[in-house]
Amino acid sequence: MIIAVDGPAASGKGTLAAALARHYGLPHLDTGLLYRAVGRAIEAYSDAPDFEARAIAAAGAVDTGHLDPAILSAQPYGELASRVAVIGAVRQALFDFQRQFALQPGGAVLDGRDIGTKICPEADVKLFIDADSKARMERRARQYEARGLTVNRYELYHQIEARDARDRANPNGGFFPAPDAHLLDTTRLDIEAAFRAAVALVDGAMARKAGPSGAS
Ligand code: CDP
Ligand code: CDP
For residue range 17-69, what is the model confidence (pLDDT) as tens digits? Predict the structure, then answer.
């Protein structure tokens, strides 16, 4: 079973994808970490002539075995990630690893922006997680505050809006729900309620796939 979980920044897609992976006993890949790792590595390629060349060199050398969320979840890496993510050659360099992860025997859960549209259009279940910008800003603010950081909510709101705008305008297709994705708006759902709603969608989709003969 392959589950694709897409959605904008701080929609809760990572938390949900991890919970679904535990529930169904599947491996999970947070694909945002790949782009964040490229953003973080860029400064090591200062010899390359410009930002794009540095990003492409960094993408070719990403160490997929050492993607540390504790380091990569820092705000500046999210910004850098969305800047490297508009470069086609960067997306290409990260494609095979994501695709192979999705197609491993037994299945997988991947979360990101383009899982249901580009990385694994044949996924068994596609979820598109959303929440309004204010709710997403508040969630991210609390995440940072839990780490002891001081948050300017006004600035954070604008950062989230700016990142959404860049992601939507990505010349490599922009990020939208796949036509066959199930939309899940979690603005008014806590983590547990969002998880229950997602499990119902996954179970329903799998039951439909199994067809009448799969029903007991
Ligand atoms: O957790 P959050 O949504 O804030 O960020 P993320 O999922 O770690 O992604 C950071 C950035 O990487 C996004 O804003 C996208 O620009 C880019 N990204 C992408 O282009 N494709 C993906 N599959 C995942 C992330
Ligand atoms: O992966 P993404 O950036 O979409 O979001 P996340 O890191 O999974 O979630 C951002 C924060 O919102 C986390 O601290 C979650 O615990 C919280 N969250 C929430 O409060 N309510 C939800 N329904 C989902 C997530």
Answer: 999 999 999 999 999 999 999 999 999 998 889 999 999 999 999 999 999 99
User: Residue 114: CA atoms inside 13 Å, Cβ hemisphere, count?
Assistant: 19
C-alpha 136 – ligand 1 centre gap (Å): 14
- CA dist 81 and 11 (Å) reads 17
- pTM recorded for the entire structure: 0.96
Q: Phi/psi of residue 100, each to 5°?
A: -65, -35
Q: What is the ipTM of this complex?
A: 0.97
Burial of 185 (0-12, 13-18, 19+ CB in 10 A): middle
Q: Which atom of ligand 1 is nearest to the CA of 77?
A: 10
Topology of domain 2-198, CATH: Rossmann fold (3.40.50)
CA of 79 to the centre of ligand 1 (A): 9
Q: Is 12 annotated as a binding residue?
A: yes
Beta carbons of 28 and 3 less than 8 angstroms apart: no
